[in-house]
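Pair request: fold both.
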Amino acid sequence: MPIHPTAIIHPGAILGRDNIIGPYCVVDANVTLGDGNWLGPFVHLTGHTEIGSGNRFHSGSVIGDAPQDLKYKDEPTRVRIGDSNQFREHVTIHRSNKLSDDTVVGSHNYLMANAHLGHNVKLGNHVIIANGALLAGHVEVADRVFISGNCLVHQFTRLGTLSLMQGGSGIGMDLPPYTISQGVNQICGLNIIGLRRAGIPPQERLELKHLYRLLFRSGLNLREALKKAAGEFKSEPANIFINFVGRTGRGVCRDVSSVRKDKETNEDAASPVD
């Protein structure tokens, strides 16, 4: 049976064709559901939520609930979701906190159990978010990002394309494209495996390695390094990297080696002289 008899579908909801809606699901008045979606048991779709086709929502997912923002006053804000996404058990996605902006999820993403997207998040395509990862409001995630389990992303932070967060890491600064986060606001090199899987040619991968060293390990300040990089690197991935770092508003995560040097310098300065 496409719609289980225990499911509650508001008459104002708009449903496409061939949707399967499981036991005890609730689909509220202002939800638009495309074709061929699958809702497991106890899924709740609410708010002004537009969902494309071919998505799968596993048990306990809550999509489109009110933002966790004290300034929000029950305005009819929105969530927009694309096609062919998978939302595993107890994923939560909140609608935006203002009418002029939406929470947006692209297509072909995989969100694992207990992942959370806060209000006004912008999620690209082919993104993987593992169990328990938490994205605060206004976070922007580019295509093909991998966020490992129990990661934390502060509000207004950007994650560049093909970046990767190691498990348990946290960022409150922008994570540049193609890089790997480690610990808190640190990066430890390039996501080489991701670059290979994305079909980035060897020559462009090598150029990105040189660019990474210039920006984060040369000893130059970031402004000087960016100015030098603009004249030396011409490939499309390099330009994406340079433009992302150049447009940061929060600052970018620092290479772990430079953080370690700063720590060692501070420890030496604080040590007694023999």
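--- second member of the pair ---
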Amino acid sequence: MNTLDYYNKFAKHYFDITVNADMSRQYEEFLHFVPRGGKILDFGCGSGRDSLYFKNKGYRVSALDGSEELCKLAREYTGLNVRCMNFEDFNDKNCYDGVWACASLLHVDKSKMLDTLIRLRDSLKDSGHMFIALKNGEGVEITPDGRYYNYMKVSDVEKLTYESGMDIELIYMSKSVSNPNETKYWNNFILKKTK
């Protein structure tokens, strides 16, 4: 089993354990940088929890995920036309005021992180902002359930941000909001596209 197999097989379980997670701090920090009513991409939307929040706040939301089963659940939950696509196929250009990549980039192969960040940067309008959340740590792990994780320290993300043509506006750490037993901390970043 690989990462997508896991999310397809256990989509309902994953939906149930994440859909009610309290993301209020992350929302507040991110939306401070996004114009009211702006266009937001939820990159790796999972349950659709965050997409629905942004939609209900009056933002125009585009959502995508790699898991076909999660996309079905997210469509039902949000009423949005959630796109199902592999992250490496994403190629939108210059159309979002904000990109929200919450707990999705940690499943991207470490060797493809820079390319992924560049494509997300290119999807932003000039001076657009991106939120990313990654588990703090080093190296990669394939968990017993088959999911691939890449862990990054703040310095790793700082290097990737510079190389991808963005600036870091904000960094803060947080605990897991969906798993009280999680021992790893999350590094949260808000990045700005530089012209």
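Observation on the second member. The beta strands are 39-43, 60-65, 83-84, 96-102, 124-135, 140-142, 148-150, 166-174, 186-193.
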